[in-house]
């Protein structure tokens, strides 16, 4: 089998050839047809989630064909198309499992995080946690439903019967939820990065009552809002847009720190809740609904070997998390970005060695700051700040890095400089 493997967080995935695994008792082996790329995969690669296992094959929005079943598997025969989602298994005996809240299980397993996922040609899954799918459907269109769709559906259920709904972060989950809201006859308002005209146009094409930047207020008070973007500062913004008695649902698995905010934003019986993981009930309900109303995800194909490129593209402003599918033999994407002219490999981490700590560079760092001042990407009148780290090491890993990163002001493009030849990008 083929797989893209994460051996160390903060590094690129590595293509590997492996033996095709055999399913154990209660398991099935699935030949992967498509696996969507999710922002959670970025959190896995960047090491932002607890209990991260490495090496690991990421990917948790999987659609494929069952090739073999282990002992004790009933109801899923070889040749069946199935979906494999984030929740890979639970203990079944803890208090949460007994209360029918398996998404909160203390010993849950997660696809692409604690057990190998779908950035591969084959995957092993617990037969009790896969979802039978229509044999005649397009697997590339089904894949984003396995996380973006399921989490979006759980958020929508948590929101209740709100009629005017705000969607903060109009990516994969939001554009699927928008289709459900339109089918239900509810109005939705899309909030994007300020200036993201592409996402706002997509929202309007899906029937948004209003679309604008997250720094703006909607034309009418919202009954409720869902925050899909992993940005903590959106919490007070959403609370400020919701009327008294409204609810704000945080739908991400990871979010930056929520800033301090005045109590008046929460006062008036406004509620702030989070959604964690998903349940098999969520999957059954949403997949049945999606097939009935014809939910259509926006997708971009990538070959399996281009999984790193798909992840890199997902980091770009305006990228739609979960809208990109990769599978063995898929169409090729753009070539990877080449190393710096001197051959020094680029690093993905933005917390890098301070320029003053590298051999041959003045300890004051003034020479590097001067070079950065001449960069045409630097906003006029702004002094870029040097990369933050002590003693020339990555604070997360304690090892030297190959790039120096100048952090531009918020919302601006970062400037990275090679410590060997001084080239920047």
UniProtKB/TrEMBL annotation:
It holds the Pfam family ADH_N. It is an enzyme of class 1 (oxidoreductase). Residues 365-377 have a biased composition (Basic and acidic residues). One of its GO terms (molecular function) is alcohol dehydrogenase (NAD+) activity. Keywords: Metal-binding, Oxidoreductase, Zinc. Transmembrane segments: none annotated. Its cofactor is Zn(2+). Residues 10-250 form the Enoyl reductase (ER) domain. Its EC number is 1.1.1.1. GO terms for cellular component: cytoplasm. The keyword Oxidoreductase applies. The keyword Zinc applies. Coiled coil: none annotated. Residues 314-403 are annotated as: Disordered. Gene3D superfamilies: Medium-chain alcohol dehydrogenases, catalytic domain (3.90.180.10), NAD(P)-binding Rossmann-like Domain (3.40.50.720). Belongs to the zinc-containing alcohol dehydrogenase family. NCBIfam families: adh_fam_2. This is alcohol dehydrogenase.
């Amino acid at each position: 089998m083929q797989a893209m493997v994460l051996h160390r967080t903060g590094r690129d995935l590595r293509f590997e050839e492996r033996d095709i695994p055999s399913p154990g008792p209660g398991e099935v082996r699935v030949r992967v047809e498509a696996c969507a790329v999710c922002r959670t995969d970025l959190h896995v690669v960047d090491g932002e989630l607890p209990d991260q296992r490495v090496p690991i094959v990421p990917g948790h929005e999987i659609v494929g064909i069952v090739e073999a079943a282990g002992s004790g598997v009933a109801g899923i025969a070889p040749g069946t198309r199935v979906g494999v989602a984030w929740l890979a298994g639970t203990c079944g005996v803890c208090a949460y499992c007994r209360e029918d809240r398996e998404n909160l299980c203390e010993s849950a397993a997660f696809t692409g995080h604690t057990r190998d996922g779908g950035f591969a040609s084959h995957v092993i899954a617990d037969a009790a946690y896969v979802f039978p799918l229509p044999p005649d459907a397009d697997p590339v269109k089904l894949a984003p439903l396995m996380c973006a769709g399921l989490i979006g559906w759980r958020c929508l259920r948590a929101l209740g019967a709100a009629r005017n709904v705000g969607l903060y972060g109009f990516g994969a989950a939001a554009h699927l939820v928008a289709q459900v809201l339109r089918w239900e006859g509810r109005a939705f308002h899309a909030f994007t990065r300020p200036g993201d005209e592409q996402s706002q146009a997509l929202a309007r094409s899906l029937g948004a009552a209003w679309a604008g930047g997250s720094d703006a207020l909607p034309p009418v008070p919202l009954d409720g809002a869902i925050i899909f973007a992993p940005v903590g500062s959106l919490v007070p913004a959403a609370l400020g847009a919701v009327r008294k008695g409204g609810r704000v649902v945080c739908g991400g698995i990871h979010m930056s720190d929520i800033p301090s905010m005045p109590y008046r934003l929460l006062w008036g019986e406004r509620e702030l809740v989070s959604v964690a993981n998903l349940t098999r009930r969520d999957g059954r309900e949403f997949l049945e609904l999606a097939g009935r109303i014809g939910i259509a995800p926006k997708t971009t194909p990538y070959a399996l070997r281009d999984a790193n490129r798909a992840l890199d593209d997902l980091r770009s402003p305006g990228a739609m998390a979960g809208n990109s599918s990769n599978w063995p033999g898929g169409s090729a994407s753009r070539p990877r970005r080449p190393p710096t002219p001197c051959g020094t490999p680029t690093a993905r981490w933005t917390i890098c060695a301070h320029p003053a700590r590298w051999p041959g560079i003045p300890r004051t760092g003034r020479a590097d700051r001067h070079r950065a001042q001449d960069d045409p990407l630097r906003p006029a009148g702004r002094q870029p700040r040097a990369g933050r780290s002590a003693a020339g090491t990555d604070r997360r890993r304690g090892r030297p890095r190959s790039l120096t990163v100048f952090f531009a002001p918020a919302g601006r493009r970062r400037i990275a400089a090679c410590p060997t030849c001084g080239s920047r990008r």
